[in-house]
Design a protein that fits this description.
heterodimer, A: alpha/beta, Urease, subunit C, domain 1, TIM Barrel, 2 domains, ten-stranded parallel sheet, 24 strands, 31% helix, B: mainly beta, 14-stranded mixed sheet, four-stranded mixed sheet
Chain lengths: 565, 255
């Protein structure tokens, strides 16, 4: 029996409705309990901010394209080198660190759960292998369906039950968690050298449109009762004027689920551009945010851009090619047969660039203009907008108008004219930040019942204690202290063990992988459908039996069972 | 003035590399304890070198660091140095003068690979030969040396000044293959012979005083200057670089 008592904690737990009470937290065997024996280990939180472990609902830390980023940029591995020390393995890399680098740095910032934003089903094994090497962070894998031919067939037939059968089977087969659509239809079109410019354009060789794919996937997702909604990277990413596509996409879902959103739009910063060329690009964050404000069925994440070098990586192959034509840097593009594609290219976001400065402002505008923090998650789409180690700076920018004004002075002067950032004086509270970095994410991902994102009795004892006393700190003036506090916890607890203390890894405890078993009824089992089996063997380069990820790859898997309606 | 003499102690395994990025003049102000890595072991500087300090100053400009003994496996000496002088009496290991921002490094022996990699300012003088990738960028890096001067009295290895972006490199002897590959600025001067020079260069000047072997066909001859043939290229990449060659090897694609 392993017990810990955390005393004098300044707790903010939005899911439980605790808004900053000094209280004690008891932990036994990895779970929060009512009380512990008198002889247990005691941690004095000293009135410092204590939150549930952080959750990143959209990050790229494991899998083939992350690894491609690693091996196409040996120069990145020069940064962030730490030797093997105590419980730590050696690490290296800044924009695409080694798996241990990701794990330790997230842990230092108080994070305990990560959702890998895009796992190609064909390449699931690699992703799960890297999950296994990312200790202290419970992992979830959003599975790509944006160019899945089996799904497309069901969409073409307008058969939601069949679409659900394909999604359910694939998630179980590759140990995935949620449905990710990346530039739906567009990546498939890119396989034929084309892209789609609107959600009503027909996918080449298919009589369907992105709208059909999104709509059917949403309905199939709800039919399956999946914990997370459809996780959508809209069409036209990074194109001036793309806010129209985003607004049209926002209008697609109706409110189908009382417990969470029906559609999760990711890295919306990249999808809120006005103008028509790079020369007249402007922010349309106000329009996008006001649309989100009227739609409780939608949750977005920021996809904030921060200045400096980083690596972009996405399943959106055509977008990465467009980036290449701008930067002429080394790049990669990749096709995953019948399923999706991907691209990787390093970029440098510069304060001197008007476009980069406007992008920076749009992310902040979105977070400040979306009224309900439960509807806007704090992300950088790591590492696309910036490496995740920049999160504390973003927190500082959102909590302090003064800091925003100072930064706004440093960026390209066009930013003031082309965005509304300078006119917004909203400052987020510690509670808003707690929602945007853990509670909201737990709700959006549907993992509250798994004990994530809160400190209720029975919850997983993932706890972060930050060296800041909210009742004695004015974040709008003392933003530097706040940033420093979020950069390094006093203690990070994972499963009831202190894993990180003052930035030093104390103990590298193994993680879990949450995956969804859809428990399809017999008549929905695609393995029993001769048509599916025949198509699979004709078009895939692997056998059906070899496609499925064995249990050996998810030794510490947590099966989340769902049942169809 | 202050003189710091570091004399290498005999080592049980002299082949093991020593990572010594803290050997920069500034670090010898005061009495801070310094560490180096020998293979995978962290060592005090005093355990690897006999350290003798003479004089005491407050600013790095007036510091001379002298390395003595078998220093051919000591890596990253002078990394990020901004002022002062480092004199190496023998050979020096890889990555000497990485990211240098000022000051001088004088090497009396030979330098191993990556000498003056990505340096910004300052000067390096090597009396012997230099290894591969002298004045280049690190693997994957798109910008090599950006400023300062490297002078090599002997020969240089392959990929001399790859991704050279600024500053000047002068090699008195010969260079290996691909000198000035991907050059995008700066001046690369080689008094001796080279093979396949300036591939894919986009800007900058490359002057070859000897024979250019296996010249690429993607350079456009534009005239003659000072007894040298002047080329423009690399046209394969719409480059605007200038390549001047004393003598192009016969039977190469371009003459």
């Amino acid at each position: 029996m392993h017990e810990i008592l955390i005393k004098n904690a300044f707790v903010i737990d939005p899911i439980q409705g605790i808004h900053g009470d000094i209280m004690d937290i008891s932990v036994r065997d990895g779970r929060i309990v009512d009380k512990v024996s008198g002889t247990c280990e005691v941690i004095d939180a000293g009135g410092n901010l204590t939150l549930p472990g952080g959750i990143d609902s959209h990050t790229h830390v494991c899998g083939t394209k992350v690894n491609f980023g690693r091996y196409m940029s040996p120069e990145d591995m020069r940064a962030g080198r730490t030797p093997r020390r105590g419980a730590m393995y050696h690490t290296s890399g800044y924009t695409v660190p080694t798996t241990y680098g990701n794990s330790y740095r997230y842990s230092k910032m108080g994070y305990t759960t990560l959702l890998e934003g895009a796992m190609a089903p064909m390449e699931a094994r690699h992703t799960h292998e890297e999950f296994a090497a990312t200790p202290m962070q419970d992992m979830l894998a959003n599975t790509l369906f944006d160019g899945n031919w089996n799904l497309f067939e069901a969409v073409g037939d307008k058969d939601i039950r069949q679409a659900a059968a394909v999604i359910g089977w694939t998630l179980s087969a590759v140990r995935g968690f949620g449905v990710k659509l990346t530039n739906p239809g567009g990546t498939e079109a890119w396989g034929f050298g084309d892209d789609l410019s609107s959600i009503d354009e027909t996918v080449p060789n298919w009589d369907i449109t992105p709208r059909d794919i999104i709509d059917t996937s949403i309905k199939a997702c709800e039919f399956l009762h999946l914990p997370h909604s459809v996780h959508l990277h809209c069409n036209n990413l990074g194109m001036p004027g793309n806010y129209r596509t985003t607004l049209q996409t926002l209008d697609i879902p109706s409110d189908l689920n009382p417990d969470r959103q029906t559609l999760y739009l990711t890295h919306v910063q990249f999808h809120s551009y006005g103008g028509s060329t790079w020369g007249d690009i402007s922010s349309e964050a106000e329009k996008v945010a006001s649309s989100v404000n009227t739609k409780p069925q939608v949750v977005i994440d920021m996809g904030q851009v921060m200045f400096g070098r980083t690596m972009t990586m996405t399943a959106d192959g055509p977008m990465e090619f467009r980036l290449y034509t701008l930067h002429h840097n080394k790049w990669s593009n990749h096709d995953v047969e019948l399923e999706t594609g991907s691209g990787v290219i390093p970029v440098y976001y510069s304060r001197k660039s008007p476009v980069n400065s406007i992008m920076w402002a749009i992310g902040l505008e979105l977070a400040l203009l979306v009224k309900n923090p439960w509807q806007c998650m704090l992300t950088t789409d790591n590492p696309n907008g910036a490496p995740f180690v920049k999160y504390p700076e973003i927190i500082g920018l959102l909590m302090s108008n003064l800091y925003r004004e100072k930064e706004l002075d440093q960026v390209h002067k066009l930013t003031t004219d082309r965005t509304s950032l300078g006119t917004i004086d909203r400052e987020l509270s510690f509670e808003d930040i707690a929602v945007m970095t853990r509670a909201g994410q737990a709700k959006a991902l549907g993992i509250i019942d798994q004990g994530k994102g809160h400190l209720k009795e029975g919850a997983l004892a993932d706890i972060a204690i930050y060296p800041v006393k909210p009742d004695q700190t004015d974040p709008s003036l003392q933003y530097e202290e706040v940033i420093g506090a979020f950069q390094q916890t006093l203690y990070t607890l994972k499963d009831g063990f202190v894993v990180n203390r003052d930035g030093e890894v104390i103990r590298g405890i193994p993680n879990r992988t949450f995956w969804v078993n859809a428990n399809l009824p017999d008549d929905m089992d695609v393995m029993k459908s001769p048509r599916f089996v025949e198509k699979f063997s004709r078009y895939y380069s692997v056998d059906l039996e070899n496609y499925m990820v064995q249990d050996d790859y998810v030794e510490r898997g947590i099966e989340m069972n769902t049942h169809v309606a | 003035m202050m003189q710091v003499t570091l004399t290498m102690k005999p080592r049980a395994k002299p082949f093991l590399p020593i990572e010594a990025e803290m050997i920069v003049p500034m670090n010898f102000i005061g009495s801070r304890e310094l560490f180096v890595w020998e293979g995978n072991k962290k060592r005090r500087l005093e355990d690897v070198f006999t350290v003798r300090k003479e004089g005491n100053v407050n600013s790095p400009e007036n510091i001379v660091v002298i390395l003595r003994g078998d220093t051919g496996r000591v890596k990253r000496v002078g990394e990020y140095m901004s002022s002062g002088i480092i004199t190496i009496e023998g050979d020096i290991g890889m990555h000497c003068g990485n990211f240098m921002r000022g000051g001088n490094i004088v090497i009396h022996g030979n330098a191993d690979g990556w000498l003056g990699r990505e340096m910004r300012a300052g000067s390096i003088l090597c009396h012997g030969n230099a290894g591969d990738y002298c004045g280049s960028g690190y693997r994957g890096e798109k910008r090599g040396m950006r400023g300062g001067k490297i002078e090599i009295m002997g020969d240089a290895g392959d990929y001399l000044g790859e991704y050279l972006t600024g500053g000047e490199i002068h090699v008195h002897g010969n260079a290996g293959m691909f000198a000035g590959a991907e050059m995008r600025g700066g001046t690369l001067k080689i008094d001796g012979d080279v093979r396949i020079p300036a591939a894919n260069m986009s800007k900058g000047t490359c002057i070859i005083g000897g024979v250019a072997h296996e010249m690429l066909p993607t350079f456009e001859k534009t005239g003659e200057k000072n007894g040298m043939v002047v080329f423009h290229g690399d046209v394969a990449n719409k480059g605007k670089g200038e390549l001047m060659i004393r003598q192009v090897q016969e039977n190469s694609a371009l003459q």
